[in-house]
Prior knowledge:
alpha+beta; Naphthalene 1,2-dioxygenase Alpha Subunit, Chain A, domain 1; Rieske Iron-sulfur Protein; 4-stranded antiparallel β-sheet; 9 helices; 25% helix; binds FE2/S2 (inorganic) cluster; binds fe (ii) ion
Amino acid sequence: MTNPxxxxxxxxxxxxxxxxxxxxxxxxIIESVFYKNWLLACHSSQVSTPGDFLTLSIYDQDIIVxxxxxxxxxxxxxxxxxxxxxxxSGKGNKKLLVCPYHRWSYDLNGQLKxxxxxxxxxxxxxxxxCLTPIRVENFLGFVFINLDPECVGMDDCYPGIxxxxxxxxxxxxxxxxxxxxxxxxxxxxxxxxxxYNECYHCKNCHAxxxxxxxxxxxxxIAPFGDIKVLHHTSLATRSDxxxxxxxxxxxxxxxxxxxxxxxxxxxxxxNSYSWSPLKVDDVRVFRSFYSNDGKVDEVLxxxxxxxxxxxxxxDLDIVKEVQRGLRSRGYKPxxxxxxxxxxxxxxxxxxxxxxxxxxxxx
Length: 362
Ligand code: FES
Ligand SMILES: [Fe+2]
């Protein structure tokens, strides 16, 4: 008997372009991924006092996050239960949300309180009319929402993450929202999320980040157990060009599928990314920073400004170009650089993201 010929290993290829460009598939992804998973809505310090509310959208779903009169965090679909006008816009503090169309008003528990001339309608029972609630959780100060009423809670969805975050930042729950900026990236949400989750391009494209915050030789991105989290780790930079005093804890960030990452820079700078799809080839990224007093001090301002004009802008330029390339008739997905040794020049996270997406929509 002869031994079979060894089979040459085939490199894993990237995802075909239609996952990034096809409008019908995009709608399916919104339904199966974005309406079924936990998404970062805001920080609890932004809705800290009863009556505080803010509004946001997840694609075509408008949402209100509020602090109810009972001091409980609430989330509702932002739609009046009369004839469907959007109820609230922007943010503020109110006892009642009043619909701009016919002035039905709701308290911040979502209960209808009054409707003009409703007493003239036999059987009209305002106690039966409420805004439609959405799952909401305060996770270490971050407010997550989930449009799927059946989804398990954050700790069951992302076990071990609470402890891992607290080990990097023990006072995380005392942080307050300080600042955010945002940009429309001109690419599919996954193009942006892929770019965030690999550092194969970092030495080539992010000279400032590689010197200012982290030590690129120690950077790695690996799955966090068998849950849908990618864990970025690195030692703090040893360069003389550090943006600020980076002593203390090392770098760590936690990308929570599908569209949130919470980052801990060395020296205690806490920040986040969240991505909100706008259409098949556009996504809005929110870049938020958190401090101990809700203020932006000189050090934090320097980090925000440096990041914005270097790493953040460099990635914006990259992802737009990639999205254009994904529409090219000449594009065939190439092999991914999946390095069994891990390390910075490694696209294992891309392979994993593709598996997670395909398991949701194929
Ligand atoms: S639609 Fe809101 S009051 Fe009529
Ligand atoms: Fe990048």
